[in-house]
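note to self — DONT lose this again. spent like an hour looking for the file last time. sequence + predicted structure for the chain T wanted, 415 res
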Amino acid sequence: MINGLLKPDLAIENCAQLLTVSENSPDLVGLIQNGYIAIKGERIIFVGNKEAYEQQIDRRDCKVIDGSDRVVLPGFVDCHTHLVFGKSRVEEYAAGLVPGGLEKYRATGFKTGMAASVDMTRLEPEASLYLESHKKIDRMVRNGTTTIEIKSGYGLDKETELKQLKVISKLKQNSKADISTTFLGAHGWPMEMSKDRYIDFLINEMIPQVAEENLAEACDIWVDEGYYTAKDAEKVLRAGMDHKLEAKIHTDCYSYIGGSDLAAEMGMMSGDHLNYTPEAAIKKMIDAKVVGVFLPGTDFSVTHPLPFNPRPMLDAGMQVALATNLNPGNWVESQFFVITLACRKHQMSVEEAIKATTLGGAAALRRNHELGSLEVDKIADIQIWDTDNYKDVAYKHGQNFVATVIKRGQVVVGL
């Protein structure tokens, strides 16, 4: 501060629409017409209108970006991905587009689904896993995503799970996005081991090693018919919590067997999917401040028999997030596509969808105190769209609106 004025390193002036997405915004997105924002180092030091900006800011020697005819908003926070995996399953996906095609594909001897991805990830060298994952992250950043959660879960053995987690650790050090790591050893269990024996292996060997080597911040599990039970999940996730790993859960995607209730009982970070979650469990999750994470790309890719309905949760006041669930069976890298689906197929408003891909995603990672909105003292993760109306994101389908991305105060895309 010089002569009582703030002296930023970077400012964005005259933004057609500045969306702060602050927690208590009455319009959900915190719209400021003709808004201004100033950044010092990694942090935001000013957000407001022109009059306040001219009174509080010394813009000499400051890099200025013209926001005329542009929308400025927080970077997307993608709170649920599986982006470190072996080869593509494009042939399987293409076969499944026509009636009977997937059955014919399997009849030729090819594995499908998670079993195929586990085999391919086990075989993939660490170097190529890293290279392909880095490319995905670069594309995601160019689509406005500045923070990404990445899960393991395509190994189901110690060697491959650790390989995935080590790739994620390297990506953390060398990517333009911030990365949060989740250990999802309980994505399924290996054919060579019983479920109960594998649970013991996770609890007694994998979780302690993952925690000791600081390879993850959270532990996750799949709870559904044919996967793990809520009782199984409690064992695994409590073991994780005993080793300082936060808990989250895939649940209620194809059935309701108590996973969302457990999410509330354990005060988890998030419950993800939630297609079959009943009203009573929704209330428990809200009371426990568990974030509901919706994955519209998944419902689209698998032609889900019961696409998620966010209205009961939104109308009851649940904090919700939207994420890509990028994985080899649902190759979605763009939160723009997620917003399109959420608004058109799942009855979310544009404002609800924008909040869910920014502040909601940050809340699901318990980082909404520093990410997900444009407020003073928060990290300057910002995207600038080449449009003057934020509602275009749900109207003009298939576009990447990003002109500029700012990560921790530095321009990483554009200009």
